[in-house]
Amino acid sequence: MVQKSTSVCLLGGFLGLFLMAPVLMSSTPASMCTPLRTLNDSLSHRRRYMKHNFPINYSIRVYREEIFKLSNISRMKLKVEELDDLVLQRLWFQVNQGVLKKIIRVMSERHPSRSYTAELERRFKDVEGVFVQSHPAEVFQQELPEAVQETWDHLTEEPDRVPESNWRLVSPKSLVDNLCHTMYCLFSECFDAETQQDYCGDSQLRRGRKTSSQNTVTTPAE
Ligand SMILES: *[C@@H]1O[C@H](CO)[C@@H](O)[C@H](O)[C@H]1NC(C)=O
Ligand SMILES: *[C@@H]1O[C@H](CO)[C@@H](O)[C@H](O)[C@H]1NC(C)=O
Ligand SMILES: *[C@@H]1O[C@H](CO)[C@@H](O)[C@H](O)[C@H]1NC(C)=O
């Protein structure tokens, strides 16, 4: 349902928004907090479903770039000047939709974690729907910083074109931990209690809030 209204909204709003949107963003639209917290509720059961239901040391093959942790965020912020949170959020969606798909693919229909993971994916997509809906379409066409574009290109590569050296073996639990911890960091406005535990690292990671222009332009989601 979210997806449908999203595309309607995108079609309808595209022209107008395209013309009026300056470069805006950073920070998380308030409308994302409800679906993010719903996803967070599911994530609280990840130990049971992503670890206990799998053999000891079980791991799956993922692209190197599908390992997206807090350390990646701080490194990218150091490397790319003025890196917008929105770019990192887009990357977060790109990485984790692939990760969830790969986890689901290793489970048979009757695997005890199958429906849990499918629910996780559904809730993740709900968040993505609201994310897309709460930003002008133009934002998603913006050029990415070069280093991020390079990562993006690797993430969207066909599996048979990924060289052997770019594959990694990672446990499902650790992939979902990454998803969760980076979520607390990148959407910190919705997770104040969690981010007080410093998920997003030190003050160098804290960005100034640039919300002034945003409030006037990104409200169609409401
Ligand atoms: C997110 O989930 C954790 C448990 O995993 C919980 O302690 C926390 O309160 C939740 N945060 C929000 C904002 O729902
Ligand atoms: C799992 O991995 C750990 C650390 O690499 C290793 O010490 C342990 O023996 C492994 N367990 C099994 C059952 O393979
Ligand atoms: C995160 O860092 C690791 C280690 O440097 C790297 O292999 C991986 O590609 C990075 N992930 C992203 C999404 O940039």
UniProtKB/TrEMBL annotation:
<dbReference type="InterPro" id="IPR038328">
    <property type="entry name" value="IL-34_sf"/>
</dbReference>
<dbReference type="GO" id="GO:0014005">
    <property type="term" value="P:microglia development"/>
</dbReference>
<dbReference type="GO" id="GO:0005615">
    <property type="term" value="C:extracellular space"/>
</dbReference>
<dbReference type="InterPro" id="IPR020415">
    <property type="entry name" value="IL-34"/>
</dbReference>
<protein>
    <recommendedName>
        <fullName>Interleukin 34</fullName>
    </recommendedName>
</protein>
<dbReference type="GO" id="GO:0045651">
    <property type="term" value="P:positive regulation of macrophage differentiation"/>
</dbReference>
<feature type="signal peptide">
    <location>
        <begin position="1"/>
        <end position="25"/>
    </location>
</feature>
<keyword id="KW-0732">Signal</keyword>
<dbReference type="GO" id="GO:0045657">
    <property type="term" value="P:positive regulation of monocyte differentiation"/>
</dbReference>
<dbReference type="Pfam" id="PF15036">
    <property type="entry name" value="IL34"/>
</dbReference>
<dbReference type="GO" id="GO:0005157">
    <property type="term" value="F:macrophage colony-stimulating factor receptor binding"/>
</dbReference>
<dbReference type="GO" id="GO:1905517">
    <property type="term" value="P:macrophage migration"/>
</dbReference>
<dbReference type="GO" id="GO:0008284">
    <property type="term" value="P:positive regulation of cell population proliferation"/>
</dbReference>
